[in-house]
Amino acid sequence: FLQFVFHTYTTGFTLLNGNGTTKVKEYPLQQKQISYGLGAISYAACIGALPLVFMNRYTLKSSLTQLVVKKLLPAPLLGLMSAFTVAVVRSPEFENGIEVMDRNGKVVGVSQKAGEKAVKETALSRAVLFGTTFFLPALLTYFVERAKFAKTPRALASVRMFMITSVLAGMLPVSLSMFPQCGEIKRADLEPEILSSTEETELFYNRGI
Asked: CB atoms < 10 A from the CB of 50, how many?
């Protein structure tokens, strides 16, 4: 359930902050994207919970299994599923294309390749944000438990929450700055119809968040 809530929030955020190309708005996207989003959320939540379900189903209770399944595996899996939901919800951007502009902001065309690049960059930044945010605190908490710095479960929970908040606060600007909001793409990498409409060597697009 918590996995479902988390991916619902991030998917809704992604849906609202994608590229707003005019041509894309001509397509009946709202129902399509919502359907894609619900499917992606359900899939991501099930995959995220699968290791724990598998461990409980087969009663794998060794300390190594507990460490891997409960501490180490959820973070990269969460990062991967976060990237997956971004790619699914924003798939119309690389199916239909997004606007590319010259240095003066003049729109010179709509490019599927620019849309693909924008979605890939956003998915990667989202994976880094949530993967790191949940991996580092889990790893640090493990060492805190081993060193017995936190004497009570309540103290350990407070330490874990502090670590998650600190890492998230540090990783948020890092993930947002991994790729510029106004992305660049070389003219040679674009479609032939755009090549013939401008002499600019580099064009620009809105990446979204």
From this structure: 14
Residues whose CB falls within 8 Å of the CB of residue 200, separated by 6 or more in sequence, listed in order: 102, 103, 108, 187
| Gap between the Cα atoms of 99 and 93, Å rounded | 10
> Using CA atoms, how far apart are residues 188 and 80, in angstroms rounded to an integer?
31
Residue with tokens 């060193």: 147
Please report which helix (H) or strand (E) contains residue 40, including its range: helix 29-57
What per-residue confidence (pLDDT) applies to 54? 76
pLDDT on residue 160: 83
Tokens of 120: 């890939």
Contact present, 110 and 99 (Cβ < 8 Å): yes
> Domain spans of the chain?
1-206
pLDDT tens-digit profile of 125-162?
A: 999 999 898 888 888 887 887 777 777 888 888 888 88
Residue range 177-194: mean pLDDT, rounded? 90
What phi, psi does 120 have (nearest 5°)?
-60, -45
157 token code pair: 């929970």
Spatial distance between the Cα atoms of 85 and 14, rounded to a whole number of angstroms: 9
| Cα distances (Å, whole numbers) of residue 96 to 4, 21, 91, 110, 152 | 29, 10, 9, 8, 55
- Name, of 95-99, 123-127, 190-194, the range with top average pLDDT: 123-127
What's the whole-model pTM score?
Answer: 0.83
